[in-house]
Design a protein that fits this description.
The chain is an alpha+beta fold. It has 2 domains: about 190 residues, Helix Hairpins; about 110 residues, Glucose Permease (Domain IIA). Helix content is about 60%, strand content about 15%. It contains 5 helices and 13 strands. Strand 7 and strand 8 form a beta hairpin. The chain is rod-shaped. The two termini are about 25 Å apart.
């Protein structure tokens, strides 16, 4: 059965619906900042991996550089040794030239040696003969020296190549580390902004919940006052002064108005009162009238509705069984028995008073 909520309740629901609009935007803002933080973290991780890769490559280049330096040093030592050998042979050749001159065997080639013109001497066949007498070939030594110089030049070129690569790696690693520092700073900023947005959203939610609670309390109080005023007016018009009988013997366990639903756990408007009583307890008509319905009705379970005239009716729900199926009933007449049918958590009677089809507070009529 469709029941229209009171205007105050509709106002509360409208306010809640409006509040959900900024809530959605705020949630999106928090989600955006969370994604920004995740992206910043991924960038930092990627740059960290690049730094590690550059460091590993740098270590490899350093090892190659050390190897090339060792080879260059060895080549230099061999070249120096060969240079000393050549110098010694040249000295011996000079001595030979001087001795030949003293003995009177003046030879133009030896004169060139004695005068120190070794380069010219080396260009003659006679110098090769003299060198051969001492057991050494000056041409062979010159070839060896040329080869060593070539090797030294090659080693130096290789060394220069490795040093250039090392410089490049140092520069590249410095650039990556600079980017990494920037990414870390960006991550710190993103995390601060995210924490600020989360805190702001939590504060907004707390304020919204407090405002909603105040609105619900105010709406419930206003509705209760309105129902009490309406009941008083009806009592004045009918002259009955309420006059309804308590429909079952037991305490009121849940009053009329807003409450936390015992099954769903959310805030809902309770359209009647609950009377705590054992299953099987007799239920009586609160006022004389005509039974218009005695049947199963969804969450109400077994329910009896009694019309009393002037748009006033009463309803008795969650019954275990019926004592009447229709017709007229008198005030205090047993019409059914307490049960727990329908959407119920235990034996009790749900009692409603309706005016013009709208639920009103039964306490104004009992």
């Amino acid at each position: 059965m469709h029941v229209r909520l009171p205007s105050t309740a509709l106002a509360v629901l409208t306010a809640v619906a409006v509040a959900l609009v900024p809530a959605t935007a705020a949630s999106a803002s928090v989600q955006d900042s969370r994604e920004e933080v995740q992206q910043a973290r991924e960038e930092v991780a990627q740059l960290g991996r690049e730094v590690e890769a550059a460091a590993a490559e740098y270590e490899e280049v350093e090892a190659r550089l050390a190897e090339q330096e060792a080879r260059a040093e060895s080549a230099g030592a061999r070249a120096a040794a060969q240079a000393r050998t050549i110098a010694r042979i040249e000295d011996e050749l000079v001595v030979m030239a001087v001795e030949a001159y003293k003995l009177g065997g003046v030879d133009p080639k030896l004169q060139l040696l004695a005068s120190g013109s070794l380069d010219m001497a080396r260009s003659t066949d006679e110098l090769g003969v003299v060198a051969g007498r001492k057991g050494a070939s000056l041409d062979t030594l010159r070839e060896a020296q040329v080869e060593l110089e070539r090797l030294r030049a090659e080693e130096q070129a290789s060394l220069a190549e490795v040093e250039a690569l090392e410089a490049e790696l140092v520069e590249r690693r410095a650039a990556i580390e600079k980017k990494l520092d920037g990414a870390k700073d960006a991550l710190a900023v993103a995390e601060r902004e995210h924490r600020a947005r989360v805190a702001a959203e939590q504060q907004r939610q707390a304020e919204l919940a407090a405002s909603r609670a105040r609105d619900e309390r105010a709406a419930a109080d206003a509705e209760l006052q309105a129902q009490q005023a309406g009941a008083a007016t009806l009592s004045d018009v009918s002259g009955s002064g309420g006059g309804m009988a308590m429909p079952a013997s037991g305490p009121i366990t849940s009053p009329f108005g807003w409450r936390t639903h015992p099954v769903y756990g959310d805030r809902r408007f309770h359209k009647g009162i609950d009377v705590g009583a054992s299953c099987g307890t007799p239920v009586v008509a609160a006022r004389s009238g005509s039974v218009t319905s005695a049947s199963w009705h969804g969450s109400y379970g077994n329910i009896i509705v009694v019309e009393h005239g002037d748009g006033l009716s009463t309803a008795y729900a969650h019954l275990q069984g019926f004592a009447t199926g229709g017709g007229s009933v008198e005030r205090g007449q047993v019409i059914g028995y307490v049960g727990t049918t329908g959407l119920s958590t235990g034996c009790h009677l749900h009692f409603e008073v309706r005016q013009g089809g709208e639920p009103v507070n039964p306490m104004g009529y009992l």
